[in-house]
Amino acid sequence: MIEASMWLSEKEASEVLRVDEKSLEVMRERGYLKPGFHWRSSNDPNQLPWKPKVFYFIRGCKEVIEYWQNNDESCAQRAA
């Protein structure tokens, strides 16, 4: 079982959080998921500066996603 305190790749996080990768990206771009707390970029020098891989902190992301799901039924539409 995956621990909620783990940092996971975008693909793994989307599976665990049950949201698609594009929704995670939109939530990041709109500021719902904060850099350093909810997500971080890979520091692999071969990926910088163009589109580095992103890793998500599962517990923090889950809290934000659940908040929006419980408080705004249009969350899925907003992230889409």
Can you describe what's shown?
- The radius of gyration is 12 Å and the shape is globular.
- The chain has 80 residues and is an alpha+beta fold.
- It is 45% helix and 12% strand.
- The chain has a three-stranded antiparallel beta sheet.
- The longest helix has 14 residues.
pLDDT < 50 stretches: none
Number of strands: 3
Rg (CA only): 12 Å
Task: Determine the mean pLDDT.
Answer: 82
Order of helix and strand elements from N to C terminus: EHHEEHH
Question: Nutshell version of this structure?
Answer:
With 80 residues, the protein is an alpha+beta fold.
Topology:
Elements: E1 7-9, H1 10-17, H2 21-29, E2 39-41, E3 54-57, H3 58-71, H4 75-79
Antiparallel strand pairs: 1-3, 2-3
Features:
80 residues; 3-stranded antiparallel sheet; 4 helices; 3 strands
